[in-house]
């Protein structure tokens, strides 16, 4: 079942990128992050992922699958995903999108973080 979810995701992300453009795709990824994050800590924890995963259609994932997702995206080893780690993980899960839009991603991320740092 988890493989099906991954395949569905991989098919949808390039389509979303084409439809929304770089800025729109980053906005949607940020919205997804906010849905899954622990509101008090501002990161995605195992507990927040487990309790909020149904919002994104992931309610059938087992605990070990959720932990595997966290470990795969946890670049700094703190046991949680911050917004950047989440976005990087989403793009890593879609190799087709990475091949097609690596430059678009870089531009959109620079713009997003520049916008957030001036607020």
TrEMBL record:
InterPro entries: EF-hand-dom_pair (IPR011992), EF_Hand_1_Ca_BS (IPR018247), EF_hand_dom (IPR002048), KIC/PBP1/KRP1 (IPR044205)
All copies of domain EF-hand, residue ranges: 61-96
SUPFAM superfamilies from the UniProt entry: EF-hand
Family matches, as SMART domains: EFh (SM00054)
Keywords: Calcium
Gene Ontology molecular function: calcium ion binding
Identification of the protein by name: EF-hand domain-containing protein
Organism expressing this protein natively: Anisodus tanguticus
């Amino acid at each position: 079942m988890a493989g099906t979810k991954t395949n569905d995701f991989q098919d949808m992300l390039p389509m979303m990128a084409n439809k929304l453009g770089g800025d729109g795709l980053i906005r949607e990824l940020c919205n997804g992050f906010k849905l899954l994050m622990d509101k008090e800590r501002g990161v995605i924890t195992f507990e927040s992922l487990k309790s909020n995963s149904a919002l994104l259609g992931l309610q059938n994932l087992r605990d070990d699958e959720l932990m595997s997702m966290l470990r795969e995206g946890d670049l700094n080893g703190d046991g949680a995903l911050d917004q950047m780690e989440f976005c990087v993980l989403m793009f890593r899960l879609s190799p087709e999108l990475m091949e097609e839009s690596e430059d678009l991603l870089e531009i959109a991320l620079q713009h997003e973080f520049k916008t957030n740092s001036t607020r």
